[in-house]
Inverse folding.
């Protein structure tokens, strides 16, 4: 399913592509940087904010570009530490972006470390049986401009909460690509977006503070390993043997562990950084001692960090998280072998839980909006 916007999003343009488009409009080369400076450094919200551009040019730009392709429709502060931004795209698709604040000793929440969890697709095609994002399948890929727009919306939100010096760029510390969708299935748009976020003319956000989470698209992991920017990689393993993984993640049929593990190793070696193995604990599915031992061996072999995530129940799905004792018993097998492991408990305080809860309750969310309107026709 393809969606073609009527005008390109300004937030999807690189300095080169924008300069090229401006040249076609008969504008000098310096305009590109000038405009991007307004967008990313000064956070201009309208064309008329860009006061050093001639008025006639502002009008031409407004006709040629979509300044912000994602509108904030709801800001839900679910718990004290997470903030969910519900964004509506031009085709009326809804996506969520989450701000997770990690409380730190002695500082208020406004000054805590902030991790932003972003989406890359509307829905997901991978069909993992435990995941709500994939329940309705894939609606469409996000454009690069829609991915970047999520971070700008977060900047607007955070700038309003804690006014910052104009020279300060991003108002958050980490980006995790763990929201709705399989990021590596939308590779080109993702990479364009991350380059824009990383560039000095963009948000100037360091690649090493960006973690991409994948369900294990082996060829794309290998492609990512060759990129010049050193993003961090997290792999959703969720099964330490093919037998268990295959039951819950259909992708394991195409890329079983015998293919996935070497790809992870290649990535880790290429970037000299620990990869994270994510492992949701689901009662009676993957929480046995045998799975813990198999995971331990894989993690040791790959020199990987393991992130254990107690499953968050999803309405309509029967899966459950194991009890605390069983979670602890699983983690202990890894710790005993000196594997670096985190086991998150506090629900709301947990990055993965918050992201894992990026549930596509699109229609319920829409119904909850002030002045709710009926759902839009599907995009074809
Ligand atoms: N598609 C990518 C990134 C988005 S999913 C991936 O699968 O890695 C982000 C993380 O949330 C993944 O590790 C995913 O397995 C996890 N997740 C999905 N549903 C969850 C649930 N109900 N409880 C906890 N984590 C969940
Ligand atoms: Fe898609 Fe990730 Fe959910 Fe699997 S876990 S269905 S890959 S979003």
């Amino acid at each position: 399913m393809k969606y073609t916007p009527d005008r390109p999003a300004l937030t999807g343009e690189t300095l080169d592509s924008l300069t090229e488009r401006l040249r076609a409009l008969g504008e000098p080369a310096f305009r590109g940087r000038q405009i991007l400076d307004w967008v990313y450094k000064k956070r201009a919200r309208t064309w008329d904010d860009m006061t050093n551009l001639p008025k006639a040019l502002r009008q031409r730009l407004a006709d040629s570009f979509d300044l912000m392709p994602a509108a904030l429709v709801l800001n839900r502060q679910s718990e004290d530490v997470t903030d969910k931004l519900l964004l509506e795209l031009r085709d009326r698709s809804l996506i969520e972006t989450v701000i997770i604040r990690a409380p730190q000793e002695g500082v208020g929440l406004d000054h805590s470390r902030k991790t932003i969890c972003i989406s890359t697709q509307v829905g997901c095609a991978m069909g993992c049986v435990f995941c709500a994002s994939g329940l309705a399948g894939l609606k469409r890929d996000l454009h690069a401009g829609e991915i970047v727009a999520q971070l700008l919306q977060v900047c607007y939100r955070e700038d309003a909460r804690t006014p910052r010096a104009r020279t300060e760029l991003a108002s958050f510390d980490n980006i995790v690509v763990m929201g709705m969708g399989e990021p590596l299935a939308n590779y080109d748009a993702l990479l364009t977006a991350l380059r824009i976020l990383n560039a000095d003319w963009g948000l100037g956000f360091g690649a090493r503070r960006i973690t991409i989470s994948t369900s294990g698209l082996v060829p794309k992991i290998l492609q990512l390993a060759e990129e010049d920017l050193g993003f961090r990689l997290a792999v959703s393993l969720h099964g330490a043997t093919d037998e268990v993984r295959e039951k819950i993640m259909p992708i394991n049929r195409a890329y079983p562990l015998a293919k996935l593990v070497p790809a992870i190793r290649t990535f880790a070696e290429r970037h000299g950084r620990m990869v994270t193995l994510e492992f949701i604990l689901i009662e009676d599915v993957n929480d046995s001692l045998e799975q813990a031992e198999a995971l331990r061996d894989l993690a040791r072999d790959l020199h990987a960090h393991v992130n254990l995530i107690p499953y968050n129940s999803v309405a309509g799905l029967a899966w459950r998280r194991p009890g605390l004792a069983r979670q602890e018993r699983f983690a202990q097998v890894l710790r005993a072998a000196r594997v670096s492991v985190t086991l998150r408990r506090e629900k709301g305080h947990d990055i993965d839980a918050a992201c894992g809860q990026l549930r596509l309750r699109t229609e319920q969310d829409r119904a909850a909006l002030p002045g709710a309107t009926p759902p839009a026709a599907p995009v074809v």
The radius of gyration is 21 Å.
